[in-house]
Amino acid sequence: MSIDVDGNVFVKGSWGAAIVEDLAPTDGDIVIEGKRGLDTFASTNLDFILRSKGITTIALGGFLTNCCVESTMRSGYENGYKVITLSDCVAATSIEEHDNAIAYDYPMFSVPMTSQEFVRALGLAP
Questions:
Q1: Total domain count, the chain
Q2: Is 122 within 8 Å of 95 (Cβ atoms)?
């Protein structure tokens, strides 16, 4: 499989933009669309939606650990949200980039934790 450097990897309705079944939105879920760059806040109405719902804490996962997730994490922090980054729900193109971001960048702008720690913190698991 090759990477499409022309930016056609995440085209709505294509395989590259498909959401895995376990994470697919269900009735009542809010879906944020229109992300055009690295930072989800920059080109969407995410901040407006979060504020209108009274949300003050965000939990992030995704791809790339040290790119899109980190960009969104920094903007969330700058916008005044408490940011939690789920260290086992992110991936990068190399282990070194992944580990470096989690060890050095994430703690400056968020509370890094595993998904299991997050679920426990929510009181949903023992």
A1: 1
A2: no
Q: In the chain, what's the furthest Cα-to-Cα distance? A: 46
Identify whether 67 is part of a domain.
Answer: yes
Residues in the chain: 126
For 65, the domain range is 57-121
Ranges of residues in the chain with a pLDDT under 70 are 1-10, 126
Q: What does pTM read for this prediction?
A: 0.82
C-alpha distance from residue 39 to each of 62, 70, 110 (Å): 12, 8, 15
Q: Which residue has the tokens 């806040």?
A: 41
Q: Is residue 3 part of a domain?
A: no
Which residue has 């269900």 as its token pair?
A: 26
Q: What is the 3-state secondary structure (H, E, C) of the chain?
A: CCCCCCCCCCCCCCHHHCCCHHHCCCCCCCCCCCCCCCCCCCCCCHHHHHHHCCCCEEEEEEECCCCHHHHHHHHHHHCCCEEEEEEEEEECCCHHHHHHHHHHHHHHHCEEECHHHHHHHCCCCC
